[in-house]
Amino acid sequence: MCYRQTPRTIFIQASFCVLFLLIFFIRFGQSRNVTGNYVITKDWFTVLKAGQFSIYDSNEQQLHYRIESQYALWQISELVEHPSNKVIGKLHMRWLALLYNANISIFDSSSNEWLHGRIRKHFQFFGDHYTIEWNGKTIVMETKVFSLTTTFYYQNQETLLAQFHRRWISFIWRNKYDLEIFSKQIPDAIYILALIARDHNISQSLKSLRSIRKSR
Asked: pLDDT-based confidence at 216, cuts 50/70/90?
């Protein structure tokens, strides 16, 4: 007995095929060469200082860097390379800025000099938008509303330079991120300092909300 397909059945099957092909091309069209891959874990507890972090390889076996912070009411942090314990990056938040604003310095081993820049948060109703100005380049750090993924790209360009993803476990445990870097045009230290800047800004916002709730 032959089963004759109706036009509606043929249309549904064709639609599923088209949808599958779109997902396939989107998934593999977005695949990129990863030049750096880190797991970044925030320390469980700090007192009178900004958050501190450990930066591991993708398997969380080898410690590559540490973020160490100074005792202060605002964020003053250093990126320390391991196992050499050499400071290769610095972040100093500007006090009393209306929106997040911090000076950064990255050590350039080729010139043996510190190259300076800044990270700024811009007002946006939905999501987060930062710019990083460093060594004559402007990089955008953007997080869409309700998204756990933050992306980096050059201003006025669509080429993805790097991205980090905040793991779901962060909502019930300490913050944990996966950082993927797709280009070596910018030092890895830039992305790590930008990540801790956003993490600090979010942490301060949550503290303010809790304080408002307690005062009611």
From this structure: low
Residue 206 confidence (pLDDT) above 70:
yes
Among candidate residues 44, 67, 37, 69, the one with its CA nearest the CA of residue 54: 67
- Judged on CB neighbours under 10 Å (0-12, 13-18, 19+), 154 is middle
Alpha helices in the chain (DSSP H): 7-29, 188-215
Contact between 199 and 209 under an 8 Å Cβ cutoff? The reply is no
What is the average pLDDT across 132-144? 96
Residues paired with 59 in a beta bridge: none
Dist. CA 22–CA 138, nearest whole Å: 33
Burial of 38 (0-12, 13-18, 19+ CB in 10 A): buried
Question: From CA 211, how far away is CA 84, in angstroms rounded?
Answer: 41
Distance of alpha carbon 106 from alpha carbon 186, whole angstroms: 11
CA distance linking residue 83 with residue 57, whole number of Å: 14
Record the pTM. Answer: 0.81
